């Protein structure tokens, strides 16, 4: 049984996991959908109520029914590197590849449906609330009056995008920023705006969840930190990330979140306040973990490799004589 | 409790359903996401573990927790008609609208996740097989040799796109066509190709499923029909669509398909062969039904209206004082 990794060639984070998979002797196929149909080939046959599918990369053939898990890391646009790329070819290649893989019984990290859903920030906030995670008071609105009333109730606010990165090429992260006390909210009418009560934080928390395993890291806010720098991604580097234990209540809530979101992997960001409460900011279903592993020494890559290596649940074996046509 | 319909203004099929909803006195809000933020507004507040959200269209305000169902018909691109449209505004508006709606407890026809998954033809074929529907032998491949061997086993083939319509503007349907006996399959290497055994059909079947209710129509293949015209959408008009009973085994299999696909609505296409077998061709989760209703008199629009009108399952009521800020 093989582990399939969908990612681009220059993904060093995937390399970290592959090292562990190779070390334990688990077969791995790494494939970038961008290389369809130039380097990567596929074939699937539906005959007499059965499906037999194969992928080929670099001359190596793997049976789709022989996949134990699929890791969707940073896959390229299907057929994006074809000699004559087009929107039509991308659509055809995407439907063919993901359509076949979606029909297989492998375990996913993360399943494309769960991944897509998990990207919705408003949905994240609601799910976090329902799972019992503390969520800072948040408003998403196109009503200037609602924004003004919210700012009266919660005078210390930050503003951030509702979606993730700005879709320019390459995409650019939009930093979270503080809202000035005298802000005029009339421009809110032109686009949905996310306002959130600023948590006066004494640390940032990054909790990386791999299956049932939770690995948390903490970065103390420097005493002399600029109070305008609320976004750790853009702040001047302060103290390093250090491993921290996950409070039991938070662990239960995080596991409930992952279960209801049907995610096998998630990178949670929290802000820790002066009382030690972890305030939920977001859960990135494809968040990077390399920087945390490097600074803390936590075995995230190894944990992912172990999750991917687990055998699939028992299922009826399918004969595989059709593969011969593609060899 | 209100029915929310997401569709464009000029959707006459939606009009058919709205007539029935109005007739039974069920409140309806019709909204095109393209009108965000110019005519349509939204606001959602996450405070103290609770969510209170509102949509406003044409000055009318509706609470998101007061929605009984959401019908995703033919919604426009979010913020597509904004005064200054952009990819970024569309992304923000899409995440805000669908992110809030995804967190509510309304019943969906169809849920966006299920709708997206259901578009994958290879996945459809596999699910149909698993539910016991007869599927004509099918190959999806980029291996010319696999295509050649398949054509030797099944000499009478059709070719069709793996995905749906060609993504030009406006999108164009690509007809299913017969494959000539002397076809050279070497071009298969340049893009995934779907080959399928041609069913020598004596009728086309369109089965419209609305919840548990199945409404099937049959169009006899004319005796003098051009055998090259395999795609009913592009064939010369023959006999009309007529209501037909669904065989019990097919009904069970179709209901199993809908259940596993988590679809509340689906338009199934079958080809009926000389033995009377219905061969599964595809299930379009957003397939049109107006033409069938007009020709057969089957009450599809009324059935959809009834499905949308059903009360949501019991849930804790949420107070609604926050709406005042947006009025």
From TrEMBL, chains A, B:
<feature type="domain" description="MvdD-like pre-ATP grasp">
    <location>
        <begin position="2"/>
        <end position="111"/>
    </location>
</feature>
<dbReference type="GO" id="GO:0005737">
    <property type="term" value="C:cytoplasm"/>
</dbReference>
<dbReference type="GO" id="GO:0018169">
    <property type="term" value="F:ribosomal S6-glutamic acid ligase activity"/>
</dbReference>
<dbReference type="InterPro" id="IPR026449">
    <property type="entry name" value="GRASP_SAV_5884"/>
</dbReference>
<protein>
    <submittedName>
        <fullName>ATP-grasp ribosomal peptide maturase</fullName>
    </submittedName>
</protein>
<dbReference type="Pfam" id="PF21068">
    <property type="entry name" value="ATPgraspMvdD"/>
</dbReference>
<dbReference type="GO" id="GO:0009432">
    <property type="term" value="P:SOS response"/>
</dbReference>
<dbReference type="InterPro" id="IPR048936">
    <property type="entry name" value="MvdD-like_ATPgrasp"/>
</dbReference>
């Amino acid at each position: 049984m093989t582990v399939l990794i969908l990612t681009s060639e220059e993904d060093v984070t995937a390399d970290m996991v592959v090292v562990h998979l190779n070390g334990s002797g688990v077969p791995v196929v790494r494939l970038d959908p961008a290389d369809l149909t130039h380097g990567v080939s596929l074939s699937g046959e539906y005959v007499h109520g059965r499906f037999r599918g194969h992928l080929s990369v670099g001359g190596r053939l793997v049976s789709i029914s022989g996949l134990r898990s699929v890791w969707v890391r940073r896959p390229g646009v299907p057929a994006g590197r074809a000699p004559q790329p087009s929107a039509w070819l991308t659509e055809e290649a995407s439907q063919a590849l993901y359509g076949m893989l979606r029909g297989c019984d492998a375990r996913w990290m993360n399943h494309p449906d769960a991944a897509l859903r998990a990207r919705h920030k408003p949905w994240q906030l609601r799910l976090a609330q329902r799972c019992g995670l503390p969520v800072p008071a948040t408003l998403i609105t196109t009503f200037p009056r609602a924004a003004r009333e919210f700012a009266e109730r919660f005078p210390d606010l930050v503003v951030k995008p509702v979606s993730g990165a700005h879709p320019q090429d390459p995409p650019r992260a939009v930093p979270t920023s503080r809202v000035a006390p005298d802000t005029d909210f009339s421009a809110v009418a032109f686009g949905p705006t996310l306002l959130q009560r600023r948590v006066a934080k004494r640390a940032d928390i990054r909790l990386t969840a791999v299956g049932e395993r939770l690995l948390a890291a903490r970065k103390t806010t420097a005493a002399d930190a600029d109070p305008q720098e609320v976004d750790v991604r853009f702040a001047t580097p302060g103290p390093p990330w250090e491993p921290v234990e996950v409070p039991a209540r938070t662990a239960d809530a995080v596991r409930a979140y992952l279960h209801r979101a049907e995610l096998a992997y998630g990178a949670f960001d929290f802000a820790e306040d002066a009382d030690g409460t972890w305030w939920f900011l977001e859960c990135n279903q494809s968040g990077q973990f390399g920087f945390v592993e490097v600074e803390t020494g936590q075995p995230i890559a190894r944990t992912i490799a172990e999750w991917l290596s687990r055998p699939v649940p028992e299922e009826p074996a399918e004969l595989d004589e059709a593969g011969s046509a593609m060899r």
